[in-house]
Amino acid sequence: MMMSTLGETLKKARKAQRLTQMDLSDLSGVSPSVIYKLEKGRMDIAVGSLQSVADALGVELIVRSPLGEEVKLNG
Question: Of 22, 38, 54, 65, which residue is most buried, by most CB within 10 angstroms?
Answer without folding.
Answer: 38
